Amino acid sequence: MKNHIVRTHRSAEEFPREEHLAWRIAEVATDSAEVAADTEEMIVNRIIDNAAVAAASLVRRPVANARAQAIAHPYDQGAAVFGLNGSYSPEWAAWANGVAVRELDFHDTFLGAEYSHPGDNIPPILAVAQHTGRTGRDLIRGIATGYEVQIDLARAICLHEHKIDHVAHLGPSAAAGIGTLLGLDTETIYQAIGQALHTTTATRQSRKGKISSWKAYAPAFAGKMAVEAVDRAMRGEGAPSPIWEGEDGVIAWLLGGPDAEYSVSLPSPGEAKRAILDSYTKEHSAEYQSQAPIDLARRMRKRIGDLTQVQSIVLHTSHHTHVVIGTGSNDPQKFDPKASRETLDHSVMYVFAVALEDGAWHHERSYAPERAQRPETIALWNKISTTEDPEWTRRYHALDPNERAFGARAEVTLENGEVIVDELAIADANPYGARPFARPQYVEKFRTLAEDVIVPAEQDRFLEAVQNTRELAAGELSQLCFSVPDEVLARAPKSPRGLF
Q: Which residues form the MmgE/PrpD N-terminal domain (predicted)?
């Protein structure tokens, strides 16, 4: 990996385009290094993972609405949409599939200086691959680039500190991945990256306070914008530049300011793109920093016993967990029994309470209104708080994966004064956890979430195709989608008429 110092440059400064971060990323996208076998295996795992969570979310209202918008844009030899037979304009297929993948907060994650869900790269890259008749090998190369770029940006550039939503790293990564997929030149990818960043930089309010369905739409929008940016760049249209480093650019006015410096590490020429191996998927449908607390709650519930005897629970954790999903956010909505599902999955206090009571977590039942509004749950929920522990913050940012921690230490005080303490640094399903996910676990997750949604024969067909991705020829990538019976789609709320 090669480090690149990224800072603001005045317009009057000599700043060659070849030193722009967008150009450096474009060079990574055009590099011809082969995809390593373990990287390819994980890419296939994540295609399975995306399809699994898309199946589970297929009849939810936001997904049904996004799908209805895609249906209004049919396209001969276009891209596939989860649940449907047919072919649709690639940017709208990326949109609909992106919402389906993101809706339940149940796919992969990478946490660094910024947090990210790099599986969000797959819907736009796959949609363009289907539309343009690319091969499975092309798709794998494109996805490897998408993951590499988003994770490298997330390692180096913090967005949430400046209240910018994390999808600002996704627009550029998806554009770069599409560039690799299509074999575009460095100049074209450079312009597409600049446009994608410019059109996908938004505030963090989408994940603050009363969180709405836009939380799922935001990454889908970034993927759609990346597809459109590539289309314009291929036609010869340019982008604001230098997009990150310009005097009125992203760093100067949206991030650290004119005096800020970032060190971004990118693969050297000829170096394999392996960043996907540093990411991890979810066993539970909740914000990633709730994964270890769920496992911890399940482990502690027997020791605690009668939960009515709990006086207080304090979760000692990292700064990020405390301020994003903990009481450090100062969001009263995180204690609202009538809050949206999106709000509840960003409340570690709610998640820990329900996991303690149920000893399990379910992507639907754990968020049901009748579940959230149980009096005993509300009572326990309001006894839980978080606090930042500098050691947990240090470990959150540790480069050594053996030290890295995204969990918490729970101190449970009972009415009789007894204090029960336990901690868990990483989720059981993490690559360094007690039960790391591998191909069998990804397949099991797909089978579980696809039950009563995708008929068994279609499940078998999809799994066979996806595990043979590299061998899929031009025109065969539509196999990496699934269809469902009409009666399944009929369970979804009817989408009201919009503009399309």
A: 19-262
Amino acid at 494: K
Q: Which structural domains are found in the chain, ordered by start?
A: 2-278 (1.10.4100.10), 288-424 (3.30.1330.120)
Whole-model pTM above 0.90?
yes
Write the burial class of residue 415 (CB in 10 Å: 0-12 exposed, 13-18 middle, 19+ buried): exposed
What single letter denotes the amino acid at residue 453? V
**CA–CA gap between residue 75 and residue 318 (Å, rounded):** 47
> What one-character-per-residue DSSP string does 338-398 give?
T--HHHHTT-HHHHHHHHHHHSS--TTGGG-HHHHT-HHHHHHHTTEEEEE-HHHHHHHT-
Q: What angle do CA 264, 266, 269 make, to 5 degrees?
A: 145
Amino acid at 240: P
- Return left, alpha or beta for 2; rule: phi > 0 is left, psi -120 to 50 is alpha, else beta: beta
Note the pLDDT tens digit of each residue in 175-204: 999 999 999 999 999 999 999 999 999 998
Q: Which residues pair with 408 in a beta bridge?
A: 317, 424
d(CA 251, CA 260): 7
Q: Calculate helix-pair angle for 122-131, 170-182, nearest 10 degrees.
A: 30
| H helical segments located in 72-213 | 90-102, 122-131, 136-156, 170-182, 186-199
Q: What angle do helix axes 291-304 and 348-358 make, rounded to 10 degrees?
A: 40
pLDDT in tens, 93-142: 999 999 999 999 999 999 999 989 999 999 999 999 999 999 999 999 99
